[in-house]
Structure formats: structure tokens, C-alpha cells
């Protein structure tokens, strides 16, 4: 029983299981082709059956309890029973693992890096695929869980980790562009350096004279003042990035946060060194992000924040913001 199986990760898991002749319920909303998101529950069913499985397409919006119940009833009627491959994720795992112990195994699976899907293209823009892995890695990881006994339950699993246990060592086969640095998954609390691979030698950038900042006042300046007071050699060493902010609205303009050079620096105007990441947003959203009232990931997904440059380094800044929230 796979929600979101009409495309992307859900469909990849379904096709992997279909090769073993699995019975698969495709629970998704799309019944007519979307202009930007290919695939429907019916086209997915055709692919699943062509791969050797049996498919039951069901129209399901997971926010609608009645649609979920109807799909479960149809699944039991057609196939006799079902297991959950992708539904609800971690919020359900612990309770359901205990409730169904000995009957159904319940585990959560999460990617270590960004996965290339149609949704990722829409959010990340042109070229983001080169920083992603293919959906195949999730399908293979899910399949390795399917093969385990029912006693393997209540686990929170990272795709790369379980595949390493299966003996896989070469993960470049899963990369859209082998050898290219990868974006760590947005929701994993891991240091991105464990994921990124250095593909180019470090280039020394000659420092250019820093222009005298204009006098500033207001919430943005106060935010940067607090950030500056929070800087340390450890933060600079761990981050290694220069951020430029293009802010619109009152107290806006160009600002920078240098977490790569010397002891770090902040201020108005362009940075002395080339920016690794340029973020554009309103001054209100900037202050909300640094004070913890607006998640950068949500701002990015909703279009309130645009990012140019290294996405992995942008994610590092989000983790730094979380550490500073108590002071802002």
C-alpha cells in the first residue's frame, strides 16, 4: 500500500517490488496528467503490471480519512491483506510498531541526500538534479527492508546506511551526476560535510578592500549585531561559507555574513570575498527566519525565499540559525 505511488519515490518503490510479483495499491490523488508533473495512478498501474506486479489504483488524498478507509477496504477485498511501504513516516512508526508487533513490521525510511523528482525540479530550479541522487536508491533501500522478518520493526532508517549493511560500497551509481557534490536532505540533522565530496581544489581568493558600511538601524541591523556577537572560530571552521542577502523592504539592501574567513564578519554591502550563497527575501522574513519564527525550508518551498549558489551551504546556515534562535 504505497501513497504517492503515481510518480517519483513512491512509484520507484512500487516498480522495485513489482519485479517480485508484488500486489501493490497505488494510493495517490492524480487521475489526470498534470502539465508539469507526469504520471497518474492509472499510468503507474500499467507500469507496475508490465514489470510483473498486480496493481490496484485508488484515488486517495491522505488528508481525507474516508478515502483512506475506502482504499484499505478495496485493498483487503482484492489482495486479502496489505503492508505499509510509505505512509505517515516517523510519526506513526513507534506506536504502530508496538500495536502490530508480530503481525506487521513498521519502519521509517529517509534519504541521506536530496532525491531527484519532479517536485525537486520545481523547488530547486534548473540544474538542481546534478546535486541529487536517483529515486533508485530509495527503492533499493525499501526493498532491503521488505526482505527482513517481521521482527525488524520500529526502526528509523537512512537509505545509505541500510544499503551499506547490504554490502553496497559504490554510491556513485545512484548519483544523477557521479562525482558532483550532493545536497544533504533538508530534514536530516547531520553535518553536510559527511555527504559532500570535494571535486575541485580550493582556490585562494584575494581579499578586496571592504567598503565602509552605511549607517543602519532597525531590526535587520539588530539581527546582524546579535549574529556577530555569536560568531566564533568553531562556527567559521564548521561552516566555511560566505552568504549574501538581498533584502527588500524597510531597512533592506545588500548585507553579508562571512563564515569562511578569519574570525567571521557581518555587515551591510557586498562581502570582501565572493559569496557562496545569495539569498533574496523581504526584511520581515529575514528577521523571522533568524528568530525561529519562519523555517528557511518552508520559506524556500513557498517562494518567499530564493537561493542562488551552493544549496548544501544554504542548509548549513539553517542549522546555524537553529542554534541562534534563543538569542534572537
TrEMBL record:
The keyword Mitochondrion applies. The keyword Mitochondrion applies. Keywords: Mitochondrion, NADP, Oxidoreductase, Peroxisome. Gene3D superfamilies: NAD(P)-binding Rossmann-like Domain, SCP2 sterol-binding domain. Transmembrane segments: none annotated. InterPro entries: HSDL2, NAD(P)-bd_dom_sf, SCP2_sterol-bd_dom, SCP2_sterol-bd_dom_sf, SDR_fam. Residues 228-321 form the SCP2 domain. Signal peptide: none annotated. It is found in: Mitochondrion; Peroxisome. SUPFAM superfamilies: NAD(P)-binding Rossmann-fold domains (SSF51735), SCP-like (SSF55718). Belongs to the short-chain dehydrogenases/reductases (SDR) family. Has apparently no steroid dehydrogenase activity. Controls bile acid (BA) and lipid metabolism in response to nutritional cues. This is Hydroxysteroid dehydrogenase-like protein 2. It comes from Galeopterus variegatus.
Amino acid at each position: 500500500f504505497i501513497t504517492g505511488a503515481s510518480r517519483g519515490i513512491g512509484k520507484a518503490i512500487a516498480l522495485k517490488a513489482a519485479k517480485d510479483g508484488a500486489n501493490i495499491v497505488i494510493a495517490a490523488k492524480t487521475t489526470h496528467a498534470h502539465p508539469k508533473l507526469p504520471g497518474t495512478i492509472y499510468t503507474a498501474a500499467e507500469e507496475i503490471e508490465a514489470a510483473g506486479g498486480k496493481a490496484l489504483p485508488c484515488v486517495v488524498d491522505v488528508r481525507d480519512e474516508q478515502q483512506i478507509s475506502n482504499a484499505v477496504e478495496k485493498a483487503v477485498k482484492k489482495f486479502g491483506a496489505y503492508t505499509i511501504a510509505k505512509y505517515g513516516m516517523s510519526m506513526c512508526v513507534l506506536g504502530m510498531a508496538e500495536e502490530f508487533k508480530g503481525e506487521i513490521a513498521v519502519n521509517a525510511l529517509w534519504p541521506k541526500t536530496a532525491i531527484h523528482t519532479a517536485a525537486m525540479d520545481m523547488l530547486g530550479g534548473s540544474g538542481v538534479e546534478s546535486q541529487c541522487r536517483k529515486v533508485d536508491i530509495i527503492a533499493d533501500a525499501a526493498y532491503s527492508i521488505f526482505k527482513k522478518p517481521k521482527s525488524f520493526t520500529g526502526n528509523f532508517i537512512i537509505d545509505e546506511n541500510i544499503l551499506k549493511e547490504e554490502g553496497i560500497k559504490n554510491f556513485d551509481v545512484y548519483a544523477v551526476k557521479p562525482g558532483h557534490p550532493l545536497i544533504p536532505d533538508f530534514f536530516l540533522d547531520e553535518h553536510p560535510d559527511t555527504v559532500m565530496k570535494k571535486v575541485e581544489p580550493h582556490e585562494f581568493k584575494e581579499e578586496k578592500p571592504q567598503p565602509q558600511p552605511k549607517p543602519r538601524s532597525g531590526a535587520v541591523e539588530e539581527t546582524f549585531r546579535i549574529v556577530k556577537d555569536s560568531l566564533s572560530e568553531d562556527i567559521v571552521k564548521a561552516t566555511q561559507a560566505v552568504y549574501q542577502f538581498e533584502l527588500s523592504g524597510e531597512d533592506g539592501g545588500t548585507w553579508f555574513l562571512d563564515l569562511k574567513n578569519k574570525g567571521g564578519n557581518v555587515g551591510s554591502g557586498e562581502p570582501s570575498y565572493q559569496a557562496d550563497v545569495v539569498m533574496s527575501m523581504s526584511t520581515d522574513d529575514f528577521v523571522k527566519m533568524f528568530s525561529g519564527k519562519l523555517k528557511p525550508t518552508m520559506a524556500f518551498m513557498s517562494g518567499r525565499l530564493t537561493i542562488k549558489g551552493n544549496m548544501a551551504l544554504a542548509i548549513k546556515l539553517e542549522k546555524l540559525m537553529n542554534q541562534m534562535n534563543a538569542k534572537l
